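Notebook B, p. 112. Complex prediction, attempt 2.
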Amino acid sequence: AQSVSQHNHHVILSEAASLELGCNYSYGGTVNLFWYVQYPGQHLQLLLKYFSGDPLVKGIKGFEAEFIKSKFSFNLRKPSVQWSDTAEYFCAVNAPDTGFQKLVFGTGTRLLVSP
Amino acid sequence: GAVVSQHPSWVICKSGTSVKIECRSLDFQATTMFWYRQFPKQSLMLMATSNEGSKATYEQGVEKDKFLINHASLTLSTLTVTSAHPEDSSFYICSADQGLAKNIQYFGAGTRLSVL
């Protein structure tokens, strides 16, 4: 079965610090990869996605992620975080064995950015 | 675009009663909707996949008679928690697939269920 690991459960940063959140998945074949963000009291929103092509994906709000197939990783990065980036971040994957329909989520990383 | 509305956002009920949660895609048609459950400080766990006009597909370990799912139209899916008990208290989240082979899910804001 597929699994997604997010090793950082809680991250605390000061504004302007750089961010990197780790995400590793277990599926060996072709996958679609996603990062979702959940701001306090709000619904999950899609930050960015990777389906194919350039492994460096740019998303909204200055976020980017790099797909490294050999490492089964899809880490999320932002060069300079803002207080408004305080949220929970979820990595997710879907795979062809479910028709690329079912999402498997990581456990999430809570990011707190102090002003 | 791609807005999913979920209602109610919070419901408190007595043990033994049933609760219905609605999930609507507001500006697109969703042939497939998904229902997730999220426990405190844990990830989202897929409960079932709901396809318009057909029976839902439940994940292993999810009681289909306990969690009734109906997807009667392309914009509405409902989850009914039947004979709710305190252990059913959780955060339930729906999502809708925009289709068109995009394989992107858009999420509702979730429903917090508290069973007394």
